């Protein structure tokens, strides 16, 4: 009776998996999320090992090519990425026209759309062409994100530097100062942890769009839209808004009680797949603690711990990656509304790996629904 005319009483219809919770919909070789062992593997490698020993560029290469690069491959890849970091005048001009009332995610979404619309390769969906588009988006997103943050601060664009690695250059373009090693490292760790997470909502969106044989840019634009929401990537900003509302650690428990009494979702907590804690949180929390020391902001860590403890006591719900990532980006000096675009800059690697995987083994994604509207009826004859 699925997808047929005529209402089906819920108790007689097929089982509905609301939100597709717990439903496997395809295979993937890109990453494995295992809530039982609380582990996350990118192409077989534990994400914690990657965060400890390789750069974000190497992780991007791994996600796209399936293997870590050797020295020659990495040098070639870095040269290619660094060559694409600049932003065309046309993209800057269109960004300039977007009102400052627009959220930075709308700016990123629009910029990717413009890049896609100006790329003569857009309709070419060969793996080579898609890899090329993915590398160009990966290289340009730091310019897009920092251009927007700086125009909101009434500051000039900072040109990318090809003598710096991805994360050092990102921070250079954001703040116009040579970043310190500790900050670069913490930022790189955040990029690695955000890069990929199997069939999350934005990646699934990208795969749905790809499944219609649409192009890579369209799939990335759709994924950005899905990531924007606070139940997904938008949560890293929402965490910081909550911290701002709470103020200090001693106010956390009362704030939480009030929020829960008003049935508010506490952003940065809970996860669809992990029910015993997010595999990435310990590594990101270490990075946060290093930034707390670096910027001498123990008060922020105290607030972090106070809210986490109160949430554990009241609901037994644990933090997800957005919880430590939000305050880390705050300490580095990013504006809160820029946090989710930072997530985009990282996740574009995972999205595009999935887009290529979907394209290589495609089936149109089109589930069924069960109709529960009015019974068949007829338009009254007039006159
Ligand atoms: C990188 C990422 O995208 S990670 C996710 C980032 N998102 C957030 O941090 C937003 C806050 N968290 C949430 O809204 C949810 O935990 C989600 C959307 C992430 C997962 O949702 P689901 O898998 O659908 O879990 P669900 O909503 O069924 O939660 C089960 C119960 O825990 C409650 N719950 C889950 N998370 C939270 C939360 N953050 N605050 C308050 N209650 C929560 C739900 O209200 C529900 O309670 P109920 O059974 O009494 O109705
Ligand atoms: O997997 C999910 O549902 C959300 C998430 O943690 C991510 O996309 O990183």
From TrEMBL:
One of its GO terms (cellular component) is cytosol. Belongs to the citrate synthase family. Keywords: Transferase, Tricarboxylic acid cycle. The active site is at 271, 322. PANTHER family: CITRATE SYNTHASE, CITRATE SYNTHASE, PEROXISOMAL. One of its GO terms (molecular function) is citrate synthase activity. Gene3D superfamilies: Citrate Synthase, domain 1 (1.10.580.10), Cytochrome P450-Terp, domain 2 (1.10.230.10). The keyword Transferase applies. Signal peptide: none annotated. It comes from the Bacteria. GO terms for biological process: carbohydrate metabolic process; tricarboxylic acid cycle. This is Citrate synthase. It catalyses: oxaloacetate + acetyl-CoA + H2O = citrate + CoA + H(+). Pfam families: Citrate_synt (PF00285). NCBIfam families: cit_synth_II, PRK14033.1.
